[in-house]
Structures are given as structure tokens and as C-alpha cells.
């Protein structure tokens, strides 16, 4: 294991190359297939994120993959593009041709090395594998200056043969040696020690760079990658959200933020721009139709949310009490306080005041009792429900608009039609609006939009099942863009169309409250930095 070097009293921070294989290894996850157009859009975002190398696909695998790699190579001239190939001349030719217009490129070739792979998959002897590795590296090296070689299933290969294969490909001109934990078998101390032994015992290892590629079958991909960095590797291969074969790959966001948060301890850093992490995560999740686990580190829904009263109290006093990273620096909307049955008075009162209402004395007691009853019935009390409870406590209606009823006519042909009754609380009147769309949600949204005095764009919809069986409830999370801002509404119903409708209405009410506050500020000239502006309810 390498000792961390120091310069004076400050540690030397090594740069780690981030090799993103979301579009190749990540896409190999069952059901994660991307169209060429989606790959190009994600590749642009990866370049914006600041990754050093993009592996956009497997060019020989399909005409679509070839076209995507070719287009990405031509367009993204500032990022190194990697063409992926088996130890087969046709694969190498396709990878070379697809990446020929890249500003910087490399070839990445893999070949199995473990006995179980040689005996049951390749059906070749060790001597044949070494000869094939030499031949194909020499062939590919004619076309590119940077050649990366991966002995597949390296962690189950054994030192003697692993050293032999690596030594052979270095002699033939390989410039990067990637030692993959293909099946996620290694423990961190084993994986780091393997690199140390290779660097010490393989002739020519001082002439090449080393890379780590870890799978997450035992949940150790990030830990193993960190161990490899400690051992001296200069590149780590990752995917957005950790997507990939079986349990996936080393997660880019987790590795990058581990290095960023513990930079001094690790003596390493990356060039990734944290402010683009969340947007990139969301883009990949939607394109692959892979939901992100609520408890996923860094980008999961609960990663920066807190319900326990003692945690909420600490956060309101100083964020660093329970958060080691700033979510807003990662591009994550700030919503750290989640109100539920574990929430304390301090957090609840704070959130109510953020909504522009101050509760004291009997009003606070009445509201708090009603809140606890609702929190016992459901997991989370959302803002629109909070305002209903506050309104009952102060005998006022605080939401600008109320969705009173929805009727949808649907079927397997033609457009869907929705009739939406919306009450404008300021005007004190109800109106019925008719909307149409190709789907029932689109029809409902079209109807509700007609009731609003501002433009609201339906930006995103997330649906989650909260239980199982015929009586299951669905939770809808809707994101709306209005006034140049993003607003999020949540609703849980047994009818998922109604859940989406009420979530959309909740998000639009947030936008309406902001719009009203801005009107009040402009009318009264009280933009004086006060903590909040109270909403005037007619």
C-alpha cells in the first residue's frame, strides 16, 4: 500500500482520471438499453459534468451503437473517447473506425484470464490466451497511441498467470492496465494489495498507468475503488447511479464525493464538477427508466432529508450537525426537513413560518394535535396538507387554488378527456375546465392549466407504489416549471391519476404563492431582506 506523500506540511493531492462507462457497461444492465439519440444527449451531459474519458458503447455490437460512438467522437472533441472491443480483429476495426474523428481516443480491449472463464467460456489454454493477447494488442496498437487492456475476472485469476498476461501486453505496447473485479468478488484489502503486487512484480509496470473497474455484487465497488486509489491507480471506471451488469458498477457520484469529502485523507481528487451530479443522475435514471433507490447515497431522495426531531433541530441550528456535504452544491434542491410523526415542534413551526404563517398559543396547539393525527395515518405530511391543517387552525383557506373534482373519460382509442373543477379562492368561485390529451394525466393537466393566471410547464412525473395488492396506494411526485423556477408537488392516492392531478395542483399552488408574494413586495416595496413575506388571504 502506498504511503501518502507530503510536500511540506500539506499532502500531495493526486489527480484521478474518471473513466465513465455508463453508455457501455452501464447500458448492459437488463432493461437499460438506450437509443443512439439518448446516448448522444447523455454524453454531452457527461462532458459538462467533467468526466475525463467516455466509453460510449460497443461499436461492433450494433449499427446503432456504432453510429452513436461515431457521432459522440465527432462532437465531443475535448473529452477522450474510448472504443471497446473483444480480442477479435473485427471488434478492433469497428472500434478504431467509430472513434477515428475523436480529438483524443483510446482503444479498450478485454480478454478473460481466470481459470473458470478459460475452461468454460473461452475453452482455451493459458498459453493460447497469452498468445491471443499479444497478437491483438500488437494489432490494435498500430491504430492508436493509447491502448487499455483488461484481464477479465482478474480478481479470481491468481497472481502467476495475471502477472504473465499483464507483462505480455505491456511488451506489445499497452499503455493502460485495467484490473477489473468483474464479478464483485474482492474485499477492499485484497483488491488494493493485488495492485501493489502487480506494480511490484510485473516487468514494465513503471511504464504504464493502472485503472480500477469494480462491480457491486457484494456492495463493495466504491470501497474497492478507493482501496485501488490508495494503492496507486490513476484511473477509476464508473457509471452514473452505479448502473451496470447485475448489481452494477462503482457509482460515479459516490466515488467522486468520497474523494471530495475526504480529499486530505485520500490524497486524491477528480475534475468532476459536483454541481452537475444531480442533473446527470436524473437524466440517466429517466433515460434508462431505472428509478433511484430512496436511500441511494448522494442522489437518493432521502440522502439529504431528515425526519427525526433531534436531527431536524440540529440542522436548523447548524447544517453541519448532520450533513457532511452541501446538497445545493451538488445541484440538489434543498428540502432537508421532511415532516412526519417523528418531527418535533421546532421543525414543524419553522416549516409553517417558511410558508408565511406564524402560529402561537392555542392556534399552535390545535394545529400540532391535528398534525400528529395526520402523521400517524401516513408516512409524510406534505406542504399542501400542512397548509390545510394550518388553515383549519386559523380558520382561513391558505391555498390559492383547490382541485375540487376530476372526471376522466379514457379508453384504448382516441384522446382522453378530463373535466376538472377548480376553485379560485381569491375570486371565491368554482369553474369547470375541459382538457384533452393522449393520456389521462395529460388531459387532467391540460384542464387544470386553464384555471391558472400564469404559465406552468409540467416538467416531470415520478410514480411509486406505496403498498401491494388491489388496495395499493400510489405516490405521485410532479415537478412544474413556472416563473423561471422549479416547484415540486407530492400526493398519495389509491387512484394514480388523482395522485398526479393533486401533485400537479400542489406544485402550481407553490408557484402561485411565490407569485403572490412577489406581487405583494412590488406593491408595498418591502423587499428589505425580512425572513419571509406573509401571504394575504382575501
UniProtKB/TrEMBL annotation:
Pfam short name (any one): LeuA_dimer
Location of the Pyruvate carboxyltransferase domain: 16-278
InterPro entries xrefs: 2-IPM_HCS-like (IPR050073), 2-isopropylmalate_synth_dimer (IPR013709), AIPM/Hcit_synth_CS (IPR002034), Aldolase_TIM (IPR013785), LeuA/HCS_post-cat (IPR054691), LeuA_allosteric_dom_sf (IPR036230), PYR_CT (IPR000891)
Keywords for this protein: Acyltransferase, Amino-acid biosynthesis, Branched-chain amino acid biosynthesis, Leucine biosynthesis, Manganese, Transferase
GO molecular function list: 2-isopropylmalate synthase activity
EC assignment: 2.3.3.13
Pathway(s) of this molecule: Amino-acid biosynthesis; L-leucine biosynthesis; L-leucine from 3-methyl-2-oxobutanoate: step 1/4
Similarity comment: family membership: Belongs to the alpha-IPM synthase/homocitrate synthase family. LeuA type 1 subfamily.
Full protein name: 2-isopropylmalate synthase
Species this protein is from: Paenibacillus filicis
Lineage of origin: Bacteria, Bacillati, Bacillota, Bacilli, Bacillales
